[in-house]
Design goal:
mainly alpha, elongated, 2 domains, 5 helices, about 100 residues, Mor transcription activator domain-containing protein
């Protein structure tokens, strides 16, 4: 999130009204509900994790052990098992 100067985007009369409530402080204005993005959409983190998780399942299906995947991805064995299970469920839902 970046800051935008009020004088660059708001009419002066609106700025004066806002100053009556909060003078010289920071004010967060949330996005409209229809413009909200889910976690990771803007940064690409969501897509990156989905690709990583798909890769983990592919490697597991090729015979790589959970212990090796945990070391390779710096995750616990429990996390690797959870990812594999989730990816399998998602793949079944998409294909069926």
């Amino acid at each position: 999130m970046k800051y935008v100067k009020a004088y660059e985007v708001l009419p002066e009369d609106i700025i004066e009204v806002i100053q009556n409530y909060i003078d010289g402080e920071y004010l967060y204005i949330p996005r409209k509900t229809e413009n909200e993005k889910s976690w990771g959409e803007k940064s690409g983190a969501k897509k990156m994790l989905k690709e990583r998780n798909s890769q983990i399942l592919r490697k597991y299906n090729k015979g790589i052990k959970v212990t090796q995947l945990a070391k390779e991805y710096f995750l616990s064995e429990q996390s690797i098992r959870r990812i594999i299970s989730k990816e399998r469920r998602e793949n079944l839902l998409q294909s069926g």
